[in-house]
Amino acid sequence: MDKKDGPAAVVRNLRAGFGDVPSLARRRIVVDLFYTSVSLDIQLLVMGFYSVGMIMTSRLGFCKDIYDKRMKNPASVDRGSCKIVELTQIHIMHTICWCDSKPLHFLATGESVEHHRVVRRDKCGEEHEVVDPESLKPITSS
């Protein structure tokens, strides 16, 4: 495995910035789609970080129970609908499928799965309130 890029680079950069000793107060970081993986999130939990980020569905360890056949056709799914699956081995890690204009898959650790509302624009430019999980707030509120 190449130690210069990918998840190893995330761990290396966080250790350089925050040190090796886990903090008593956990920090939350947003991880890019390219870096998000189950193994990285487990390592970040050990280091004292909660994380949230979009994940590629082909990643090793990704929960396949999140798939719903009706979500392949976004026209039949309401915006803001979501499905949340909790990992049985690590109860603070969740896989989330949230539908905006298309299904988006996320991996989140240590976050609340309660719902809040966010304003999104449709193709015509009209604003609509849709529901999304609290753990996606750093991503969807922009």
How is this structure best described in words?
18% of the residues lie in helices and 30% in strands. It has three helices and seven strands; from the N terminus they run αβαββββββα. The protein has helices at 7-18, 38-47, 137-140, and strands at residues 27-30, 49-54, 82-86, 93-99, 103-109, 115-121, 127-133. It has a five-stranded mixed sheet. A two-stranded antiparallel ribbon has the order 6-7. It starts with 6 loop residues before the first helix and ends with a helix. The model has no long low-confidence stretch (mean pLDDT 77).
What descriptive keywords fit this protein?
30% strand, 142 residues, 7 strands
Shape: globular
Q: Rg to the nearest angstrom?
A: 16 Å
Number of helices: 3
Q: What pattern of helices and strands is seen along the backbone?
A: HEHEEEEEEH
Spans with pLDDT under 50 lasting ≥5 residues? none
Keywords: Membrane, Transmembrane, Transmembrane helix
Protein name: PiggyBac transposable element-derived protein domain-containing protein
Transmembrane segments: 42-62
Organism: Phytophthora nicotianae P1569
Structural topology:
Layout: H1 7-18, E1 27-30, H2 38-47, E2 49-54, E3 82-86, E4 93-99, E5 103-109, E6 115-121, E7 127-133, H3 137-140
Short description:
Keywords: Membrane, Transmembrane, Transmembrane helix. This protein has a domain at 29-34 and 50-140. It has helices at residues 7-18, 38-47, 137-140; strands spanning 27-30, 49-54, 82-86, 93-99, 103-109, 115-121, 127-133.
